[in-house]
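--- STAGE predict ---
source: upstream dedup step, 1 unique chain passed
mode: sequence only
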Amino acid sequence: MSVSKVDISLNENEEKVLLQKNYTKIDVDLNKNAKGNYIYLWYKKECNPCTAITRIQFSFKPEMETGLMQAGYTKIEKDLNAGAGGDYIYLWYFCGKTEFDQPITDLQVTVDAAEEKLQFSQKGWEKSSCDLNRGCKGNWIYLWMKREKEAFVQDLAVTTDFGEDQYLLSDGYTRVDEDLNRGAGGAYVFLWWRKSTEKNKPVTGIDVSIDPEQELYLHRQGYTKIPVDCNKGARGNYIYIWYHTSSCDIPLTTVTVSVNKESEVAFEEAGLTKINKNLNTGTNGDCIYLWYK
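--- STAGE serialize ---
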């Protein structure tokens, strides 16, 4: 069975309505320790593949919404930070039928690094990179999704504005919902990936360059450069993400980022590899690192 419906409750009355509709509640407050409303995520499962949700994204800026609407995503009009005073965060979902769409079969929410480690250690779970307490002082809260079949990273992209969002989303890409320029000013920079169950020529390596010498080295190693500066407008180093594809090496199943230092310990213990090059090098922004598995 696949997840076919999702919803949010902001109060007890809404909880009662969703219970009457046979939704399952994830009993984790999405505003934990942020002093806002008690907010919960709910879902329903069905056997019908035509109604299966295949992608979930979040928006925390109005500009992030346009591409999602144009690509056919459905927005749940309930702020996940209601009453807490943080960023306005909204959940969007999509039922896709492309080779890059795998039905979501389960959902979970974590509230600390120990729970993140547990989720990563279980095969098939995928972490959303948007902190659902973003802009608040509560717990670092993340949504996790489990899919029907294991998928492998096929393509990567980076954007520095929102003009390409519709096209990438329509082509099966998922946005890593964290600004790689977080705290540094400049453009809003996002990493995107696209996964498939096929292993024709998947991404088997990923790296970062923060100076010309590293660019030259990665070029000589056969890596492909994504020609978009991850520090655009922030006046830091010119930073680029590189990747390698091969039909012979082990394909990547996970590409994510860390902002919270406590998460890094959980990532390491769960077997993820850190690229120890700060994506905000040369700025006063948050220390953000790329991880893969």
